[in-house]
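Journal club prep — side note

Before the paper discussion, L.F. wants everyone to see what a predicted structure for a comparable chain looks like in token form. Sequence:
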Amino acid sequence: MDNLIKSADKKILIAPSILSADFSALGAAAVKMERAGADLLHCDVMDGVFVPNITFGPKTVADLKKATRLPLDVHLMIVEPQKYVDAFIDAGADFLTIHYEAAGKQLIPTLQKIRARGVKSGAVISPDTPVAVLKDCLAYCDLALLMSVYPGFGGQKFIGGSLKRLTELTELGKAANPGILIEIDGGVTLDNAKSIAAAGADILVAGNTVFSHPNPAAAVLALRG
């Protein structure tokens, strides 16, 4: 996985979101994304409280871990994420990202805990949250994730203004932590991927764009640019 981190300087990393897969065949979907050349598998964990949708928990993450060699990029969209990080780490998360809005004062201690357990840590902000709120936590992050849609559902359109926010996060993140990866999630398409990468993103999360494409490998290649 450390090789994956270093490779961000050479290419854009693609993380298909399993949220867009057929949930009756998640293992097969993970294998399909691996064969398509994806770099990570993005796992959106939603609790129906922090966001208005419910997806899955640690058991599903553990099963996906058995199905694929891709690193699992687990994105917790849940209240009080600090209570659940151990369960998702035990399940096999390789990257574990938590929302600033949900963690509050527990954000930095939780990021430290994730790292202490040997997993890559990440902080996430939703579209209405100022980028500057992450300034103090970036030194404890391996990853900073910008939501370019409102979290909760796949298939949404990219929110205008997200590129400006992405540029701001990239500048802030690299200044505080040169090795940090910048990730964007929401509304990533073949049409806007190039401009998103130009704004500083290292990792593109793409659900429908990859899963609905007749040739996922071609979609991954096109997203990478």
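L.F.'s comment for the group: The longest helix spans residues 162-176. Keep this in mind when we get to the figures.
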